[in-house]
Amino acid sequence: MNILSFLHFFVFLFYSCLLIFLLWKDPKSLLNRACAAFFASLALWSFAYIFVHNFNISKDTARLFDNISSIGWASFASFFLWFSLIFTEKKKILKTKIIYPLIFIPPLLFIYTQWEGLLTVDYIKRPWGWEAAWSGSILWYSYFIYYLSFTVIGLYLILNFRRKTKEPIKKKQAGIIFVATFITLILGTLTEVILSGLHIYSIPLLGDVNTLSWAFGIVFAIAKYKLMIITPAAAAENIISTMADSLILLDREGNIVNVNKATLYLSGYGNSELEGKSVEIFFREKDIKNTLLNKAIKRESIRNYEFSFKTKTGENIPVIFSSSAMMDEAGGMAGIVCIVKDITERKLAEENVKNAKDELQMILDSVPAIIFYKDIEGRFIRVNKTLANSLQVPIKDIVGKTTEALFPKEEAENMRKDDQEAILSGKAKRDIIEPFTTPDGIRWLIIDKIPYKDKKGKITGIIGFAKDITEQRKSEEELRQSYQQLKKTMDAAIDTMSSIIEAKDPYTAGHQQRVSQLATAIAKELHLSQDKVEGIRIASLIHDIGKIGLPTEILSKPIRLSDIEFSLIKEHSQIGFNILKSIDFSYPVAEIVLQHHERPNGSGYPNHLKGDKVLLEARILGVADVVEAMSSHRPYRPALGIDKALEEITQNKGILYDPKAVDVCLKLFKEKGFEFE
């Protein structure tokens, strides 16, 4: 081992000792850990160079240890920048997710390129050991730009921090670190880059040794100004001087002994103006001095009392005041410690919150609908005047009470059930119709209940919006009764019309009722709307009303009709339409009657309509009409039976009869056991 190897070994031990010392002093300190990581990179660099500068090893071994040293020389600038950010208290920057990848990915890339042989391309044996030959590529220049820029950024942060900080010790620490780093940067750049890289003068690479001045600067800051070492006294002094709350120390007489910077800032006084003065200089409260002394003698504390703090200018500031006795070694009272917290901002915030609540309440009270907010336990947290007026109870007597306390048991249980469904599902429950008992009787509400979530997305209750629909329900009930009466009248009229048709054509008595049964069943099985089902029912009951206009002898003729007679029969659809078209059924009854003999292939009558141009209701009626007619007796033939009728619609499905209506009709008879009544 030559003298250079011994030098690197000594430097390695020095860095290692510093590293252990820092972690032993305070392993939890982020500043200590960052500095320790910096020294670890330098220690690894020195350790590897013990072997690189040993001319007794092979070129391959020298290459291996030079690659190992790259872990140190490629990363020390990143660790220094990290240390600088922590030392200069750049907390916001350190909290950003991108900062650590930006700091530590570049050294990893350069370590990788070194191991791949892209930074140093060869090793030359010198009298002092092995010398690495740099590649001179863009990667080589990139490395030096990286380490110079990171070091310069760290230097700028430290210099700027030294200029801005008001703490004398911090200023001196920053100054020492800046000077030591700057010297190392100049010396290292000169020897490692300019002289070696440009081949001006060939000397051993001693970057790890050059950084000793850097390390010595930090050691000096540790020894002289306690950098990264916290003593109890220093910690206490630092806490007192930097704490945001005012701290006042009183003697046994209640006079001021010392105050911190926050007290001077809050009061506007200087230290000399306060020393020896009574604590009453700060407070208007009557007999506060004696109260403090009596409490201290009894070893009782004052916790979070709201006082008014008087400044030098006479301004009164709202504060929270706490105090406790200081005891001497003998257990006697030595003085009193007072903590004063300025709550001006809190009071302003409370006032703003109160004003906002008042404004919100005013808005809620102006809304004619009922509005309320309940917690998950069913307690009313906020309600508007509309609800209070409905219950004839003041708002203050509703807030804090549960649903069960304000409404009858069954009513409250239903309300709570709806509340819980909205809370558990996390979804709004809308258009709930609920009874609402008031001193004036039961009212009916339509309510929307919406889960309320806090900032974290946790459901904390429900917001309800309710409209009184009592009068609307009365109107709807009256309308429903009127509708039922009208429907009853219409049904009677339809029955009358059906009876007239049967009287005209007694041989087909009951035909229309049976067609109505089947057509209605098909419509329901197709899941048509209630309106369409009702329209089909009515149209089926009077679909042959047009036969009123035909001669009785044709309708009751016991033999098959002639072509002329059949052409007259075909007129009954048009005659039926003409009779019904002026009646407002709320359904297209007249059109259904007109089209019930139309066929999908256009062979029907009276207008030879095809496919979808025929109303679906008419297509359904057409299927039901054929099935009932074929299965029943006629004057000119006996009943053919239901099987023959089903065979007919099956063979002509899609030609003469609607496919969907046919399929459903077959299903009704074959699977669901449909029978005519």
TrEMBL record:
The keyword Coiled coil applies. PANTHER family: CYCLIC DI-GMP PHOSPHODIESTERASE PA4108, CYCLIC DI-GMP PHOSPHODIESTERASE PA4108-RELATED. This is PAS domain S-box protein. NCBIfam families: HDIG, sensory_box. The keyword Membrane applies. Keywords: Coiled coil, Membrane, Transmembrane, Transmembrane helix. Residues 303-355, 426-481 form the PAC domain. Residues 486-677 form the HD-GYP domain. Signal peptide: none annotated. Residues 232-287, 356-426 form the PAS domain. It holds the Pfam family PAS_9. CDD domains: HDc (cd00077), PAS (cd00130). The chain crosses the membrane at residues 6-24, 36-56, 68-87, 99-118, 138-161, 173-195. Residues 339-366, 466-496 form a coiled coil.
